[in-house]
Specification:
Layout (H helix, E strand, L loop, with lengths): L3 E7 L4 E7 L1 H10 L4 H18 L7 E8 L5 E7 L3 E6 L14 H6 L3 E8 L6 E7 L5 H13 L3 E9 L5 E11 L5 H13 L3 H6 L4 H9 L5 E7 L1 E2 L5 H9 L3 H10 L1 E5 L6 E5 H11 L1
Parallel strand pairs: 5-11
Antiparallel strand pairs: 1-2, 1-10, 2-9, 3-4, 3-6, 4-5, 6-7, 8-9, 12-13
Helix pairs in contact: 1-2, 9-10
Length: 291
């Protein structure tokens, strides 16, 4: 199943809804980072969250989510944009837990103490919206619900699921976001939240072939809604040779000359693990540009 997101609007009920499957892009990210099973699950939660929050944005806007917890995975940083492109990494992708994989492994691996930061780039020069809240559980979906209430005062329900095999391979990843529209009744969102609690585990539904459309259809039941968009999702990094060259241009001539003496400069992208190697000739060209 290819990755995609469905965006709906239940206008009479006053609720917008998003549901997505992200299995393939999470598998891609996990392979790039040689991630352990629990790091794969954490990437699944993070990248799915980036896809969901990215779908709330306007054209050419971006969102970044950073979790800085006290767990063995270290930092989790993910980014998403309004076109369904996401990227992300954990600082310690090889980290493992001593216990067998359980539903709360991601919370344990990221940590229960720390900060959750959400940054929105709305396309305004040198103007970013940033919200910071303390971690509550380390489970990104419930911590993002807390963030929306505290920082944006928007009642929101988020459910993210990942399913790993007994040997640690990712079988499914996906998510669900429901958000109350301005002036709508909170009772409707509460009723839908009860419906989510009564549904089978989200990742299990995806493993058994349920689609985002089918999950939304069952959840909303008789509540009428309109499908506004079905967008593809993919892991895509914005790094490039030109961006890496710009980073080297920020160095002083002394540092560049030292790199030339060493024979090369290597720039690694944290997000996708792409490596850019600049030989002596390329470094000479960069050095000339600094003068």
């Amino acid at each position: 199943m290819s990755d995609y997101l469905v965006r709906i609007l239940a206008k009479e009920a006053g609720v917008r809804g998003l549901a997505c499957v992200t299995t393939t892009l999470v598998q891609d990210a996990a392979a790039r980072h040689t991630a352990s099973p629990v790091a794969t699950a954490a990437l699944g939660h993070g990248l799915t969250a980036a896809a969901l929050l990215g779908a709330l944005l306007k054209i050419q806007q971006r969102v970044a989510i950073k979790v800085e917890g006290d767990g063995p995975l270290g930092k989790l940083i993910v980014e998403g944009n309004s076109y369904g492109r996401v990227r992300g990494y954990v600082s310690q992708p090889e980290a493992t837990l001593d216990m067998s994989l359980q539903d709360n492994d991601v919370g344990l691996a990221l940590g229960h103490r720390g900060l959750l930061t959400v940054v929105r780039d709305e396309g305004m020069k040198e103007q970013l919206y940033q919200g910071i809240v303390p971690l509550q559980t380390g489970q990104l979906d419930s911590d993002l619900v807390y963030y929306f209430m505290q920082s944006e005062q928007v009642p929101t329900l988020i459910e993210i699921g990942t399913k790993l095999s007994a040997t640690g391979e990712l079988q499914a990843a996906g998510g669900l976001l429901l958000q109350l529209l301005p002036d709508a009744e909170l009772a409707t969102l509460r009723a839908l939240a009860e419906g989510v609690d009564d549904m089978p585990d989200l990742a299990e539904q995806l493993v058994h072939g349920e689609t985002p459309e089918e999950i939304l259809s069952v959840l909303f039941g008789p509540i009428p809604y309109e499908i506004l968009e079905i967008r593809p999702l993919q892991f895509e990094c914005s790094c490039s040779w030109a961006r890496s060259e710009q980073a080297l241009l920020m160095l002083g001539s002394e540092d560049l000359e030292q790199l030339m003496a060493e024979g090369q400069a290597v720039v690694d992208c944290h997000f996708c693990h792409q490596r850019y190697i600049f030989g002596v000739e390329a470094l000479e060209t960069i050095l000339e540009k600094t003068k």
